[in-house]
Amino acid sequence: MAAIQPRVSVEYREGATVVAFTDDKILEDTDVRALRESVEAVIEQAGGLHLVLDFRHVRFLSSAVLGLLIRISKRVSEQGGQLKLCNIHPGIYEVFKITRLTNVFEIYEDVNSATQSFSDRQ
Fold first, then answer.
1. How far apart are CA 26 and CA 59, in angstroms?
2. Would you say 60 and 26 are in contact if contact means Cβ atoms under 8 Å apart?
């Protein structure tokens, strides 16, 4: 059986690369693996990347996604870039708070505020 790739869209705006997850659930190992491949492909295209991960459509995710986010953050940082998250559903945000990932990631209300934060620091 072929793996179903999580759908992502990539947009470039205001000096940032915005990767939006378009699936409402990211739960299966095959989904997480495909998501990793999709995001890593974007990261590999440019060093010093200003990356925004947009969770606007995501309502459910597995704990494996949290681990993936940490790996993505490390990889972006190693390449001299920065990672921001935005549009996190309140239920998922609670998991970030409980696991203290709110101390690890910069989380913004929307894409505009996340992309603007890159230029605020320059």
1. 9
2. yes
